[in-house]
Amino acid sequence: MSEVTLFDTHTHLNDPDLYDQAQVLIEQAISAGVRHLVVPGYDMLSSRQAIELSERFSEVYAAVGVHPHDAKTLTASDLHQLDLWCDHEKVVAVGEIGLDYHYDNSPRDVQQDAFLAQIDLAKKKRLPIIIHDREAHADILQILRNTDAVSIGGIMHCFSGSVELMRECLQLNFYISLGGPITFKNAKKPAQVALEVPLDRLLIETDAPWLSPEPFRGKQNHPANVRLVAQKIAELRGMPIEEIGAITTDNALRIFGLQGSLSRGLQNED
Description:
Blueprint: E1 6-8, H1 22-31, E2 34-40, H2 44-56, E3 60-64, H3 76-85, E4 91-100, H4 108-125, E5 129-134, H5 137-146, E6 154-156, H6 163-171, E7 174-178, H7 188-196, E8 202-204, H8 226-237, H9 241-255, H10 259-269
Parallel strand pairs: 1-2, 2-3, 3-4, 4-5, 5-6, 6-7, 7-8
Helix pairs in contact: 8-9
């Protein structure tokens, strides 16, 4: 059997519960077949920590951004710092950004302003965006259309919407990332999305330390568990996990603009 190659496109090793365990967790992930990981920021501290992790570990790449929960904290100075961080060689996206109308930890108009500002930054830097969307589908889509976000594209992180919403996201040049919920017994919508999403737009993630897949649901998640996500999608689609791993890894390398740099690195190692 050929080796499984996996890419965890969204894992919060910068979370306080995981940050000090990063080396052990990355080693475990590598043993499970994970070749690359993206650590997204969700505020200024976690964005800086994402970059620090990317500098410490060759397998790790960073995204920088302020989550809608913390949109009320975003300042002009912060945007300037995010701008500078976007020039770092291992920053591959702006995120995680978006809208969260479930908790409303920041007022909705403030969330929208922060989202717009960070989309503008991503367009300036020619980086994809990683979107957090909770109970805000209509506004997310409207903002993406109004800002011509199709020009940079990005990722619908931990996608939980319908097949119809998925198709709208695809038209806007976004990839669909599935995580632990795909393994849940009552996960009818994610399972249908997993079956119908075009393979060239499919990504996998853990969102560690949250959303652990079965059989670890309710426990702390970690990057090695992305293999369970890949395995479930492989079962649903009747494909070998090796093929799902290879396809989703290639897709991640494409959206994050890593294909050329990684192939050069492999040639140098040889």
